[in-house]
Please model this.
Amino acid sequence: MARVLGSLLLVAAAGAFTVGATPAAPRAAPNPLARIVPAPASVTPGGSPYRITRSTAIGVDGSREARGVAEYLADLLRPSTGYRLPVTTQRHEGIRLRLADGPFGAEGYRLDSGRDGVTITAAAPAGLFHGVQTLRQLLPAAVEKDSVQPGPWLVAGGTVTDRPRYAYRGAMLDVSRHFFTVAQVKRYIDQLALYKINELHLHLSDDQGWRIAVDSWPRLAAYGGSAQVGGGTGGHYTKADYREIVRYAASRYLEVVPEIDMPGHTNAALASYAGLNCDGTAPPLYTGTDVGFSSLCVSKQVTYDFVDDVIRELAALTPGRYLHIGGDEAHSTSHADYVTFMDRVQPLVAKYGKTVIGWHQLTGAHPVKGALAQYWGLDDTSADEKAQVVKAAQNGTGLILSPADRVYLDMKYTEDTPLGQDWAGLVEVKRSYDWDPGNYLAGAPSSSIRGVEAPLWTETIVTNADIDYMAFPRLPGVAELGWSPAATHDWNAYKVRLAAQAPRWDALGIDYYRSPQVPWPAK
Ligand code: TNX
Model:
């Protein structure tokens, strides 16, 4: 009795719940509105919570997109609640998804929760989808399980008004060093969606493997895709596989950014076609982890015929705006050759209707108008190199920030971390979160900062559990840097919100690193 009273008092003290209407008193207060990751732009708690029950329906207006988001939400909630949760265009008590004009932008939303229901309003379907992720985090972690759980399914009362700080919030998966199946990529996409990440960059080619079918150069995938780090069997995506990844990502409002890394990091291609080599001799496949030893042959016309074919076929598979052409660590290409290569290749991206992204070494050549450069330097990268990037930004090149000693998910957390590398340093959770993309590169105009991206290089990463361990808990922090207003940035507050995510990861089967910096709940 004392315990029941205690918890009722707690609930009443939280101002979140009125006793009376529901027969069985809930055992716990609903998750506070202020616990969402990434932190919303604005949160106003108050009023009674909404309780999802057997009779809850999900109401939508007529649009196909709103219905799609509603079906996604229903699929998420049905297994654990055991409720039917019909999606309906009829007026009904419960959850409502509305597309309406308002100050929401392309991805923002408002979530209103009270005794009679939860309404998510957005100007575009992506906003509804992100609002659904917020609703998801307001529900108990057990909602993520795939078998019926007891509930109760309370959503705290109040209003969340939210929109992202940056339009580009990315995660990269290197499927070249180790190959990951379509199912594995989908699993990662689902994890990204929970934190409102909207760009999935796939590193589709490197020295160790070529992972995408190209009809006009079939040996790239068939032979160049047959290896990986450590000598495994590798693999590649057929065009149908790749379309399925793109479709699935789109259903989670993620845009896929395909990368073909050039002119370095190309051993898999050079091994597949002798004619691409300056000396006409194909090297063997490579299964080690060195970088910087390969280069396409800049002086041969066939190189540009090859790149044109690859870009044409990849662009045709890509509804997204971007095509990433790599350009990092071209240590076996002279600077003059590098510039010549980039001058010839960037227009090919435009020819097939796409926008160039390159690693920030592209700023040492002539980035075309509209190109984005992805910065992967460190705090102590040389002033000259930073100045080159800043100068490009001042001249109109957009920047995606992926500082390696902050957001490279393949960096070890500590010396004892079993997986990962440490060339950029050890990156604990606080270090990964505690920087501001808005003032990271002094002198870069704020309009040049398009967002952030967390790359996961996979030299040491093989399984889903490996991905989970390196991405969690750092990935949600990068997502927050991309989404949340700078004013919400506060490690001490963030670590509490982050800790509250752990039961959700447990329910989802995500195997995370229990950093001692974070006040995790007891298991
Ligand atoms: C640097 S970052 C690389 C990759 C490696 C990574 C390992 C970048 C553009 N190039 O080739 O996989 O380090 O951390």
